[in-house]
Amino acid sequence: MNDMLIQSVLICAHPDDEVLWFSSVLEKVDKVIICFMGVRSDPDCRIERQSALNEYPLRNVHCLGLDESETFYGVDWDNPVTTEYGLEIADKKYPDRLYRENYLSLIKMLTPELEGYQNVFTHNPWGEYGSDEHVQIHRAVTDIQKSGHYTMWFPNYVSNKSCGLMASQMDAINLSYITLQTNKELAARIQRLYQKHKCWTWYDDWQWFKEETFLSKPAAAENAMGSGRTVPMNFIRVPAPEKQARRKRFSGASLVEFLTGRG
After folding, report:
1. What is the C-alpha separation between 15 and 39, in angstroms, rounded?
2. What is the percent of the chain where pLDDT is above 70?
3. 3-state DSSP call for residue 121?
4. Cα–Cα separations (whole angstroms), residue 51 to 36, 44, 156
């Protein structure tokens, strides 16, 4: 475990992703980089998130300040299509111009940020519960890795929404893994901070898994390892997209509704 934390950095999409999917390493990495801050259709979002980060209990957190692409509902998760910039935005009600531009901005901004790091923690290729921007972050960090020579680590969270994309990715994944205990105390503390500033975007009564597992993608090209092996997954059941609220799409749902799909 110690080797995976040497010269380590965490890259996540939005404020609160760092505690939802990476609480076991959040206090242990050298630096945390959050990519997106603002939402153009909701000016208060940037103010709320910045206020929370101003009171953040860890001092190694840095935000790139990009605006979200607002393409969350544009992906056809029944038939997701990967692209050079993340995922195809199939529903044209959600223009993908900013989504494409953000990929280029991420490459430009993250390349110098990742210089000298041996280990980079980031989102998995299927976007945990199913987020196009999580997938985009993974794609950008993967593309930078071609010249960065670091090991990528990504978590084992998946949902009924994203499991199809996960299945299509598994042939290329190294199935060796490391499992760590989640830091529930720190995570709950930061959750309360985000809730205080009205920018917590997940379930209000979310209960963390006891453990989270990280799979690796070494810098050197190699064949996927572990055929015939099992990998533990933290499975989440999320409601259908039409039942989700907009930006604060998971706030207020009860855990029972969340787990049973009745939310």
Report:
1. 12
2. 88
3. strand
4. 15, 11, 30
Confidence band of 256 (pLDDT split at 50, 70, 90): very low
CA 167 to chain centre: 18
CB atoms within 10 A of CB 25: 24
| Sequence-ordered list of residues with C-beta below 8 angstroms from that of 10, at least 6 positions apart, any chain | 18, 22, 25, 26, 29, 31, 32, 33, 120, 121, 122
Looking at residue 224, its amino acid is A
Q: How far does CA 69 lie from the centroid of its chain?
A: 15
The runs of H, that is alpha helices, within 149-221 are 163-169, 184-196
Of 211, 249, 247, 248, residue with least CA distance to 231: 211
Q: Is 55 exposed, middle or buried (CB count within 10 Å of its CB: 0-12, 13-18, 19+)?
A: exposed
How would residue 248 be classed by pLDDT, with cut points 50, 70 and 90? low
Residue-level pLDDT at 226: 61
Which tokens sit at 254? Answer: 């009860």
Q: Are the CB atoms for 138 and 123 separated by under 8 Å?
A: yes
Task: Give the residue ranges of DSSP H helices in the chain.
Answer: 17-21, 23-26, 44-54, 97-113, 132-148, 163-169, 184-196, 255-260
